[in-house]
Amino acid sequence: MLSGGDSFFCRGDLEVIYPELGDVGCSYIPKCHQYRERISREWGSPRVRYPQADKNKKYVLMLVDPDAPSRANPRSRFWRHWLVTDIPGANLRTGDVKGHVLTGSWAMETFVKQFRLGSPVASTQFLTKHHQD
């Protein structure tokens, strides 16, 4: 489990589920069994579930890297891996995420402000590389 500053984003019981690993939210991904490589090259997007989602609302889901390209030099902070909008709460509760996938360059803070998204209802993070740098 992540602790200290690394656990800053861990709130709201958001589940990020990968094959063989289960929920990696607020976790450090181990090197064993090539998990780190498999996350980025083999498994693709994880299953994301938020059991507390309001069935009558729509949600925005972002997967960003807060310290890209590395923890020592995060010059591309909040690098966007993917962004899905208009996800029905009922689907997010079950992990059946369907919505509009957006692409293009971006600044996360500007996007949140422009679309008046407010504060996150849940967030998590996990580390795959550079755990100690």
TrEMBL record:
Pfam families: PBP. It comes from the Eukaryota. InterPro entries: PEBP, PEBP-like_sf, PEBP_euk. SUPFAM superfamilies: PEBP-like. This is Phosphatidylethanolamine-binding protein 4. It comes from Amazona aestiva (Blue-fronted Amazon parrot).
